[in-house]
Amino acid sequence: MNQRVFRAGSILVSMLSILFLFAVSVRAQSDGPSVYKAKCAMCHAPDGSGNSPTGKSMKVPDLRSADVQKKTDAQLIEATANGMGKMPAYKGKLTDDQIKQVVAYIRELAKKK
Asked: Domains plus CATH for the chain?
């Protein structure tokens, strides 16, 4: 009887672990858009165009433009992490994974242009 209880408990723990990992994975995949909206959209606009009151006044670049899109992921990650011009640095405010996900989201914005 104890072996049955142990096996059932092991199976339950395994299933819960799988569900937890799946939930973390789904959350991680959605971090790019949510982080962008929370940290970037005020200046860069929800669509990445820079067409927001703050973006216009600061003359931020259109993230969908060829000039931005031709930059490597490493360059965009560095600019996001360390800041650029009037843009603040997000190193320490966002995780490395969140910054990478924001860069991936910026790539997606260009496809929607």
From this structure: 31-112 (1.10.760.10)
